[in-house]
Specification:
- Chains A, B: InterPro entries: EgtC-like, GATase_2_dom, Ntn_hydrolases_N.
- Chains A, B: Keywords: Glutamine amidotransferase, Glycosyltransferase, Transferase.
- Chains A, B: Its EC number is 2.4.2.-.
- The structure is a homodimer.
- Chain A is of the alpha+beta class and about 270 residues long.
- Chain A contains 5 helices and 15 strands.
- In chain A, about 20% of the residues lie in helices and about 30% in strands.
- In chain A, the strands form 3 sheets. Chain A has a 7-stranded antiparallel β-sheet with strand order 3-2-4-1-12-9-13, covered by helices on one side. A 6-stranded antiparallel β-sheet of chain A has the order 5-6-7-8-14-15, with helices on one face.
- Chain A is globular, with a radius of gyration of 17 Å.
- The interface between A and B is medium-sized, with 32 and 32 residues.
Chain lengths: ~270, ~270
């Protein structure tokens, strides 16, 4: 399995603190040693960083833990390979352009049957089930809408697609077009919104704490989404099986609950996640 | 104008030496202060690094100058903005997926009329003429071929497209699908192939030299392509107006000479490049 990390904020915010915790799970406090990636949305643009090395001990991940990139949406992923070998082409997040927007996506889980999905306009570069699903989602969005609809509209359509994929395996995902961050919980995903009055947060994976009151203003709203809570002194919301949420500028603006029909093998996989 | 740098090699090779020279042109020895980017092809995958800051003095470019990423194809670009503001969305190289391949492209020059090009399947995310042309090239390739043809076949088709764009302005470009590196010279591009016996090279932009004999084997073949020669003690081949070349594994495997019809304003722009 893998671990996901996402951020949605109403002001450009750096993710160094949370990334320092997540990256330790890639080889130090967790077994996700098969590469990692992170994508930052900054104003109108996007940039990503990827490595096929474990995030713990990677010079690039160390650089990013110390180099504050301020963005309003972030998606990150650390990988424990299942389907597809270790290599950059199989490293999340994956990215495609649709309607002049840069869409990014990262997946936690396994959906081996997805390798049978037919892709039309978008094709996988690597060999993971995850990227095949992403291409199928993008194909479906492109076929359904001629131009970019409002986020709630594509989120609503996407929730149905996610429900159908979720029947085939374990499918926790983060997906964004740079305006809104969409989350689908198959088995394991949680989130927290931080706003004034801010307090001190303590990482679960590292002896590191931060007083957010010192680095924020009263207007800041920042939501973090993760496979497992990254801090041990805050209350994170645990998402239900089949729950979708859409975050814009740090706020949860839309949610829905799909039928949480777990695939026969999903429950057992989830236990081992 | 901007500056381009490309590499094609038959073995995974790092570009730290050349990048150290190029990055100084972004604010130190040259005026290209409006961002920079570099894309590395490594085995089946690709990763890119971008910044909207000048490459000279950028912590990220300093990191890459010291961090050897070994790859077989590289494209890099440092930007002096003309069309489109300074921002990640307008920073080269641009990237799109076609036929399950990651295509990357960087452009030096100006083709303002390209903003009138109609895009179909691929749309620009930023506001540059460069990205609009890239999308038009990818649209054209997708319409012409159902699946990836041999590199010489798409290069031949692409040369005609480049000729038509070149009539509208200044259009020096590097483009790759990860297998082959295509170059088109509108006004200014040069290249050098290094092979055994290797010697010492001295950067033009920095007091730095390297003895390639110490870091290569006798079988290595490495071609560098650049807007201006990066070293001052080697002979670089100056490309002619309208000349195209295709490099695979460090070797020039195909070339053609399109009609070098310079746009009225191109000659004067070229002088100032």
């Amino acid at each position: 399995m893998c671990e996901l990390l996402g951020m949605s904020a109403n002001v450009p915010t750096d993710i160094c603190f949370s990334f320092a915790g997540l990256s330790r799970r890639g080889g130090e406090t967790g077994p996700h040693v098969d590469g990692w990636g992170i994508v930052f949305y900054e104003e109108g643009g996007v940039r990503e960083f990827k490595d096929y090395m474990p995030s713990h001990g990677s010079k690039l991940s160390q650089f990013l833990s110390d180099y504050p990139i301020k963005s309003h949406i972030v998606i990150s992923h650390i990988r424990q390979a299942n389907v597809g070998g270790v290599g950059l082409e199989n490293t999340h997040p994956f990215q495609r352009e649709l309607w002049g927007q840069a869409w990014s996506y990262a997946h936690n889980g396994q959906v081996p049957a997805a390798l049978d999905l037919a892709n039309t306009r978008f094709s996988a570069i690597g060999s993971t089930d995850s990227e095949r699903i992403f291409c199928w989602l993008m194909d479906s969005l492109a076929a359904r809408f001629d131009a970019a609809p409002d986020p709630q509209v594509w989120a609503d359509y996407l929730s149905g697609l996610c429900e159908s994929i979720n029947k085939l395996g374990v499918f926790n995902l983060l997906l964004t077009n740079g305006n809104a961050l969409f989350c689908f919980c198959s088995t394991k995903l949680c989130w927290i919104t931080r706003r004034a009055p801010f307090g001190v947060a303590q990482l679960s994976d590292k002896d590191l704490s931060i007083d957010f009151a010192e680095v924020t203003t009263d207007n800041d709203i920042v939501t973090m989404i993760a496979t497992q809570a990254l801090t041990n002194n805050e209350v994170w919301h645990t998402m239900a099986h089949g729950e979708c949420r859409l975050f814009v500028a740090g706020e949860s603006v839309w949610e829905c609950h799909t039928r949480a029909v777990l695939h026969a093998s999903a429950a057992s996989q989830a236990d081992g996640a």
